[in-house]
Amino acid sequence: MSSTYGDNLKLSIFGQSHGAGIGMILDGIPAGLPVDLDVLQAFLNRRAPGQNVWSTPRKEEDRPEFLSGILDGFTCGAPIAAVIRNKNTRSGDYDNLKDCPRPGHADYTAQIKYGGFQDAAGGGHFSGRLTAPLCIAGGLCRQWLAERGITVAAHIAAITGIRDTPFDPLNPEVNAVRSEWPVLNAEAGAEMRAAIDAARMAGDSVGGIVECAVTGLPAGIGEPMFGGVESRIAQIVYGIPAVKGVEFGDGFAAATLRGSENNDAFTVTEGEIRTVTNHSGGILGGITNSMPVLFRVAVKPTPSISKQQQSVSLSRGEIQELTVKGRHDPCIVPRAVPVAEAAAAIAIFDLILGSTRTDRRKP
Amino acid sequence: MSSTYGDNLKLSIFGQSHGAGIGMILDGIPAGLPVDLDVLQAFLNRRAPGQNVWSTPRKEEDRPEFLSGILDGFTCGAPIAAVIRNKNTRSGDYDNLKDCPRPGHADYTAQIKYGGFQDAAGGGHFSGRLTAPLCIAGGLCRQWLAERGITVAAHIAAITGIRDTPFDPLNPEVNAVRSEWPVLNAEAGAEMRAAIDAARMAGDSVGGIVECAVTGLPAGIGEPMFGGVESRIAQIVYGIPAVKGVEFGDGFAAATLRGSENNDAFTVTEGEIRTVTNHSGGILGGITNSMPVLFRVAVKPTPSISKQQQSVSLSRGEIQELTVKGRHDPCIVPRAVPVAEAAAAIAIFDLILGSTRTDRRKP
Amino acid sequence: MSSTYGDNLKLSIFGQSHGAGIGMILDGIPAGLPVDLDVLQAFLNRRAPGQNVWSTPRKEEDRPEFLSGILDGFTCGAPIAAVIRNKNTRSGDYDNLKDCPRPGHADYTAQIKYGGFQDAAGGGHFSGRLTAPLCIAGGLCRQWLAERGITVAAHIAAITGIRDTPFDPLNPEVNAVRSEWPVLNAEAGAEMRAAIDAARMAGDSVGGIVECAVTGLPAGIGEPMFGGVESRIAQIVYGIPAVKGVEFGDGFAAATLRGSENNDAFTVTEGEIRTVTNHSGGILGGITNSMPVLFRVAVKPTPSISKQQQSVSLSRGEIQELTVKGRHDPCIVPRAVPVAEAAAAIAIFDLILGSTRTDRRKP
Amino acid sequence: MSSTYGDNLKLSIFGQSHGAGIGMILDGIPAGLPVDLDVLQAFLNRRAPGQNVWSTPRKEEDRPEFLSGILDGFTCGAPIAAVIRNKNTRSGDYDNLKDCPRPGHADYTAQIKYGGFQDAAGGGHFSGRLTAPLCIAGGLCRQWLAERGITVAAHIAAITGIRDTPFDPLNPEVNAVRSEWPVLNAEAGAEMRAAIDAARMAGDSVGGIVECAVTGLPAGIGEPMFGGVESRIAQIVYGIPAVKGVEFGDGFAAATLRGSENNDAFTVTEGEIRTVTNHSGGILGGITNSMPVLFRVAVKPTPSISKQQQSVSLSRGEIQELTVKGRHDPCIVPRAVPVAEAAAAIAIFDLILGSTRTDRRKP
């Protein structure tokens, strides 16, 4: 009902930021799918903090232990379970967060929903740390998609107002963004880093946009209405903390076009049905049309900033100034790049597993 | 798996544009909730075509017949089932749509997925007509939310580039948009209508943006991760044909702000915890914070246009020019306004039904 | 959450005994599956009342109207919706059932759960009449299983203590029970009818047992733990009113055997792996082993009897004698035979649709 | 889809018999529910092997580590995750089980379903060992039910043909069966132990029946049709390995009664509505009527026996004699007693969490 996702596979995520551990169960995966744990670890490292100077210096080793579901390098049909031990476990008194909630965080809403019983340390179950198990599941699905010739790749599309070159919608450069700083335009990338530095110096933070592409998808994946590719990707992507917008293809820009501009004309290329443009982001009626699937994700600026902010004391019912201690990531957008890929990979693999696409053809 | 929605309530929608009928089952609703069928019909009429000169002249009476679930003006605990008979049932040969798919429509993806067995007439199950049963369910949920003091209201935020006055995020004018043409700024509304007329004269169409607000929600509604308010609303809203973007609060604009600008400071007003601004759209960590929930929906321009377009003949594997016959709605944004309200009402009522918000308070 | 079934397909059933109509939506069915409505009607007629002298004389025509999902004799990929109009719609005052509940019926529990808002007429949503839409869905699944060489057939295994010849567990006589009175042993069948007649003359009713077999199933269908064939069949079969027991293979009798007696030795027959006996009912670890699946269903005696019974007046809080009016079916077991087949067919087709059985083989 | 259960709570179980560990995630539990880990451990010990001379001597310490979801003795709203490390991890070559499957086990069906990729050691994911995480979840639910005055208790109703005194259906002796050997009649208990000893001496095994009672349930719990108490309990109980039958109230015996005998007359006792008898097992129309819920579970004899048995070599396609090595539990029925309690507690707590019972009363 909450930390569970999937119609055909079942992903269940657990953990609190400063609890004993975090992890996931991924059920419903057929046996015999290959698993390369080194490839998975490289994927997880892209999300990990402390990988570069721009992210928080707290260094965690997000190395999952697999307790079940994988044998001799293949899925064995049993649910896949993985655990990551937390190094920075709970210590100290976090009850002040329950009384004086941080603006932009879930402290207040958790207090109301859970009546003070929630684990407030480090955001508890609402911490961005929970994206690590999401990346375990997503990293696995990404491998299984790759085996079918499907690539999921994302880049930083923007930090504040600084924009990277967007993906070519007809032929997204999915292999061009594997550098440490995932952008297509190195110059824009340098500007982004400068903007992040400036924010950090000011005790502030910045947000941005992630653009994700999925190539190699056959036509016919996705279900009508609430089971469409957009519905399924949006549901899981909005499960990533700090996401406030998701759009497919031209998205909000499509709202300013005329139909004659926005409709993608069909054509035939080397015997394959294609579209001349790709305003739709590869999805018509919720179902893939074999063109690249493209979506963008708006990430708000990290709410944890060192500047003093106005909050309230819930117990006293009055305004109270708050200074959040510790060093925080002034921009989580780079780390959100693999997380968006993970989310998309899970959603699409789930749809592929349960696809009702028929093999029959009407005579 | 597809035309089914809900974690606590279960909404199942059926029908094809030119089939015998369309309708829905809404299961899991407690007994004893009042139902006012006149209020519901007024809501459905807002979605119906032919209500004004700007929409398609085909006049249908979307008057549902309730077959079960309602007795003496109250829900009776049994699943609620409603059917709308189609007046314009299937006639003529639509097989040409299977061979020569309309750009921007689901004709091609349906052909691939369903192997030619799909009902191609009028878009079949992918028709916008299927939003009528969505509005039956949503209109009911809207009544049950209203009974709890929760209001769901939307307006046309933009047609092409012409923008209405946005909702005040702290106090959205939910009662100000009930006119036939749902805008806050009459002047902008007149410009929008002119733009739609111009598109129609050109045999073309336009898109736009719908902005929706939910007021009166208590804090603590929504579940963490994939069960958050954003995840649940986005999943159902993307089930509406032609939607290509969904954003909450400041959405994509939040990506350009600094944390100190985007964080909503807490304050106390008449003993109630509030925020000074509402960049978050009333949602923190996926859970309501008692501020108005705000989201915007990007609607692409209607793909059905009378201009000639390039398509392909699937059987011959070559390009073919296509002219879509019949008169079509040059802009579906006004009709999408109640549909967005319906979708939000269903998502939120579903979350309220299953809320795990605790009544206990830690000592 | 209640009248909805299925992991891969989604079946949603609606209706009240004396409401406007009853029906179902069956979603998630691939396109291109053939539908023979005459075969379906013949199946539904086996469940219908008034088909013979032993059942209630109220004659209903359970002829469903399909509103969507079927086109030109094939599924079209859209949800399948069917409605049966009720002839005997609500009339008169049934509020006495709310105050003086019938023993053995859901009148009292419905009153508590629904607070008096429930439709009490004829049992409302709890009526055996709701098995008609179950048979629509099940009759369709049965056809689609038959297309794959899978047969689902049941017979009356017992009425009170009178027992029919049981199915041969290795080779159940699934084609031998298609007579009007579905038994293998005509003599036992005649005794059963005499027992039912005797009960009716006494203003009383009798129960019995239905035995169901599924043949032609490949090995490897079913999921571990809660997704096993037994779990899935039991869940849906217990949705049939009056069912109080479900057992597979030797069932309760297996509890009296030793392991050496109950284990089914493997053997090879014409190159196929088989078992020498079939105590397990074709299921090991929740998964089919290619032997016939066998289960038995205990049906309690019809609670509606004309004899005077002791009930209570809920409003007065005191004992009250009750005489149930109208003519009732003294034994519903014969009509439960096709319903059990329908339930099994739905459960198995659902499992087949979502089967995670792998096509790969470990080198 | 398989090792996942629940409509309102979500239970996900993982592990293989000889893998690194087994465990569970229990999601959807409200915050603030008390957890007593000592009470839980005592419950788990009832299921553990080696607790007495009648069960397998392999001694495991089933002491779960909780990684999330519990804080300071209360649920904190986050998913509850628990892990038990396996002591006897995989070693040796179990591939012979893949080629020569044990009769009565899931070896063969797993081989077909998982193509040889499955973990065959000790039965892998099909091992009875997986009931340990089921008991973690069930032990917690049992505590939360106890807090509401609801007791779940079971006893050995029979071993082979030796029967314990059955529960009094009107007032089951739920507090009388807490001894090491859970029976009501000590003499019958002694006979059962002798029967188990005799089977062990013969290199054989025996089965039996568990009877479970739930007292203190209010009326109105359960949903109609497939969400009824019987459907929900049966689904989860059939997830326990070796279960072949489940019946409620009089179950199969009800099939031999007349309606006038089987209907439970209503009465009023100290102002409360009760029934004079309890043939229905506390459930009418799938919904509790406030009388004790009673069900019985048939457990087949342990398939692992030391006697030589006939199997086949799958690779050679011919019959092969098989002797299963190691010492095995000659009777798992005593250990199934707490497992049945756990299953019932989970099913009922799930239903309580999502109950649509209305608080309103029709005027």
Biggest sheet overview of chain A: 5 strands, antiparallel
Give the ordered list of helices and strands of chain A.
EEEHEEEEHHHEEHEHEHEEEEEEEH
CATH homologous superfamily of chain A? Chorismate synthase AroC
What is the largest interface, and how many residues per chain?
Answer: A-B, 118 and 118 residues
Strand coverage percent of chain A: 15-25%
| Distance between the first and last residues' Cα of chain A | 43 Å
Helicity level of chain A: 25-40%
Q: Return Rg of chain A in Å.
A: 21 Å
Which spans of chain A of ≥5 residues are poorly predicted at pLDDT below 50?
none
Number of domains of chain A: 1
Shape call of chain A: globular
What is the CATH T-level topology of chain A? Chorismate synthase, AroC fold
Mean model confidence by pLDDT of chain A: 93
The number of helices of chain A is 8
Q: How many strand elements of chain A?
A: 18
Q: How would you characterize this protein structure?
A:
- 4 copies of one chain form a homotetramer.
- The first copy, chain A, is α+β, with helices and mostly antiparallel strands.
- The first copy, chain A, has helices at 37-47, 95-99, 107-114, 131-147, 186-201, 229-237, 259-262, 333-353; strands spanning 4-5, 10-15, 21-27, 65-68, 70-71, 74-75, 80-85, 151-159, 162-163, 208-215, 243-248, 266-269, 272-275, 283-284, 287-288, 293-299, 309-313, 318-322.
- The first copy, chain A, has one domain (4-353): Chorismate synthase, AroC fold (4-Layer Sandwich).
- Chain A contains 8 helices and 18 strands.
- In chain A, strand 5 and strand 6 form a beta hairpin.
- In chain A, helix 1 (37-47) packs across helix 4 (131-147), helix 4 (131-147) packs across helix 8 (333-353) and helix 6 (229-237) crosses helix 8 (333-353).
- The radius of gyration of chain A is 21 Å and the shape is globular.
- Chains in contact: A-B, A-C, A-D, B-C, B-D, C-D.
